Amino acid sequence: MFTTPVQGTNLVVAATTYIDEFSKPATAIVGTMNQMQQRYSARYNKRFTLFLLIVVVDLVVLLAVIYLYSSSIVRPIRHLSEVADRISMGDLEAAVDMKGKGEVAVLAESVERMRTSVKTASSGSRKGEKRPPLRARSLWIILEHASTRTAGLCDNGPVCVCLKFPFEEGSMDLRDFISLCEKEGQLKRVEAEVDWDLELSHVSKLVEEKGGPALLFENVKGYQSPVFTGAFATTQRLGLMLGKSTDLSMIQLTRTWMNSAVKELIPAQERKDGPIFENILDGDKVDVFAFPSPRFYELDGGRFFGTTVFMVMKDPETGETNLGTYRMQVLDGKTVGVQILKGKRGDRILQKYRKQGRKMPACAIIGGDPLLLLAGAAMVAGASEYDVVGSLRGAPVEIVRGQLTGLPIPASAEIVLEGEIDPENLREEGPFGEFIGYYTDELIKPIPKPALDVRRIYHRNNPILWETSAGRPVTDVHMLLSFTQSAMLWTELTRMQIPGITSVYMPPEAAGRFWAIVSVQQMYPGHAEQVGAAVIATNTGSYCCKGVIIVDDDIAADDLPRVWWALGTRFNPARGTEIIQRGRSTPLDPALEPGGDKLITSRIIMNATIPYEWKVKPTEIKLSEDVLAKVKARWADYGIDDP
Ligand SMILES: Cc1cc2nc3c(=O)[nH]c(=O)nc-3n(C[C@H](O)[C@H](O)[C@H](O)COP(=O)(O)O)c2cc1C
Questions:
Q1: Are the C-beta atoms of 324 and 378 separated by less than 8 Å?
Q2: Are 476 and 233 in contact (CB under 8 A)?
Q3: By the 8 A CB rule, do 361 and 238 touch?
């Protein structure tokens, strides 16, 4: 896998050596053939020897071609070509954000050069040119500009160096992610015995609130298998999950998602078998208590198997596969309650089964590619989240079929509960210390929920139960929501083809989905107002969101001190405020009157931009570029540490 970073020149030399190595086997074999010919010609007539020689040489050439094709030159070239095709201007912008926009043009040029050279090489190289090192160098230039700290030599040779980061391809499962976290110092193994009853969640919550490492509890009281928490509590770990470097900001990460999400979907790939089938439990052996599900908070209604789980189901009318992330409480050894809130796509599908008088086949899934959980938490319409994750990864998600339901499940999931939900049979579930930091009304009056009748359990050996600690912000669930909601909102705004949007952010401090900030480069009067109205018209912004702040493009949406500056200075409440009386909400919102169904909220749009049409705009105070350059040049003279 990856070792230390290498310099561009080393890479070129290494790549050249690598290519030269391929000629050796063929030369050696031809030499041996010559010796063979001399020996045999003494005993057999010349014609037969010549015939034999031609046959053997042909065979050797054929073998050499197969060898070169499959293992060395041709495949990497093709692979490079595919990778080069996928690098977009957006990827580059995300990569160089921290280095200044001026470099985008330079990078775009080198990508273009690389594309051409890779394509030429794939369709036959020009005479006398050593193309692979050139290509390697082009990619390396991009990697260097992308400030990738994790790039390094991998086992397969220098060409692969360029493919690993940040344009990582292929699948990642939960175990790969945990290993990656450990390698990057983002994971702590807890070997001490920890009780699943409150203790585990409290340890995890304290660490998450301080932005500490993810935790792998290896010794949960009464259990052999581990619990993993805090996966996404930092942007570093979100970066690792996306196969990117650890120093990208939330905006750079969401831009990555947005750029991939608007590309073509890559359908999941079906396999006959996978690690998830290492253990199959039926009948009496079905027992959800076999896994160390924690109880999180004192007022919780029980133990929660699923806080970081997604459910797969099929629309009975369209046949589409849907993934939804809903919490799940263990009701008994063979039943988990599932909180599918009203109006969600999952709920709409369940209601279709109810109308048809049928039970809904469903699988609750923990593990597989961590991106699946995120996709399950995003409102994806008209497509399978498996295919969305395929396009984000640049490679298909590998699935197997549930043996009872035929539903697609990730081949490398950790635990799968397979069964069905009877839409007519609602059970009491909860309460649960929700991500908003409050209990909902169900603390006063239980709310019946759908329940999954578990018929079969699949799990890997030593299955990892993945959990989040929810509760008050900011923990990993808020980071996860901030990431997915910002990315989805940005994607939707991009699809609406509104020009000038430079960044989008839904802050985790506001529980990741209740406020949105959008930065816009204004191009016409009313542009900022258009963006504000568009945000609450999207699927993402129309659910829960209470407020939208619009700022000019000199302020990044996640630069909260500057956003406050805009609100304090550029914002004029009478001019810049719109109140919308009625919009879709969630029963989880504690600001809505207790006891109601809480489905409607008001919203505010705050336009904190300087009006486009103003002829005279406020003059901002700026440091002089010339003086700054001089000051920086003689900084050491002042005897002050670097600011
Ligand atoms: C960790 C986490 C837990 C969630 N829990 C629930 C839940 O219990 N119920 C719910 O309706 N939505 C929950 N959501 C939000 C849904 O996943 C989201 O609305 C998603 O779009 C639902 O999928 P669907 O639109 O296919 O129904 C949760 C999201 C996250 C990130």
A1: no
A2: yes
A3: no
Tens of pLDDT, residue by residue over 70-118, are: 544 444 444 444 555 555 555 555 544 433 444 445 555 555 655 555 5
Q: Which two tokens mark 456?
A: 């079969």
Look at residue 580 and tell me whether its pLDDT is greater than 50.
Answer: yes
Structural domain of residue 331, as residue ranges? 266-460
Ligand 1: which of 325, 545, 599 to mutate, most ligand atoms within 8 Å of CB? 325
Q: How many Cα atoms sit within 13 Å of 54 on the Cβ side?
A: 5
Amino acid at 535: V
pLDDT of 109 reads 59
Report residue 328 as tokens.
Answer: 């799940």
Q: CA 143 to CA 362: how far, in whole Å?
A: 42
Cis ω for the linkage preceding 474 (within 30 of 0): yes
Whether 282 and 226 share a structural domain? no
Q: Cα of 281 to ligand 1 centre, how many Å?
A: 28
The alpha carbon torsion through 33, 39, 45, 51 (nearest 10 deg) reads -10
The whole-angstrom separation of Cα 112 and Cα 122 is 15
The pTM (predicted TM-score) of the whole model is 0.76
pLDDT > 70: percent of the chain: 76
Last residue of a domain, one of 115, 145, 164: 164
Quick one: which atom of ligand 1 is closest to the CA of 328? 8
Is 582 part of a structural domain of the chain? yes
CA distance 376 to 323: 5
Distance 326 CA to ligand 1 centre (A): 5
Task: List pocket residues of ligand 1, CB cut-off 6 Å.
Answer: 308, 322, 324-327, 339-341, 344-346, 376-379, 468, 477, 480-481
Nearest CA residue ID for atom 15, ligand 1: 377
**Residue at a domain's end among 257, 278, 302:** 257
**Do residues 86 and 198 share a domain?**
no
Strands 335-338 and 451-459: antiparallel
Task: Report the alpha-carbon distance of residue 261 to residue 256 in Å, rounded.
Answer: 9
Atom 30 in ligand 1: residue holding the nearest Cα: 377
**Atom 25 (ligand 1): residue with closest C-alpha?**
345
Q: Is residue 604 classed exposed, middle or buried when 0-12, 13-18 and 19+ CB atoms within 10 A define those classes? A: middle
Q: Which residues of 257-285 are buried (b: 16+ CB within 10 A; e: fewer)?
A: bbbbbeeebbebeeeeebbbbebeeeeee
Q: What is the residue with the minimal CA distance to atom 7 of ligand 1?
A: 326
Residues 17 and 131 in one domain: yes
Mutate to test the pocket of ligand 1, among 310, 314, 344 (most ligand atoms within 8 A of CB): 344
**Total count of domains within the chain:** 4
For residues 353 and 307, membership in a common domain is answered with yes
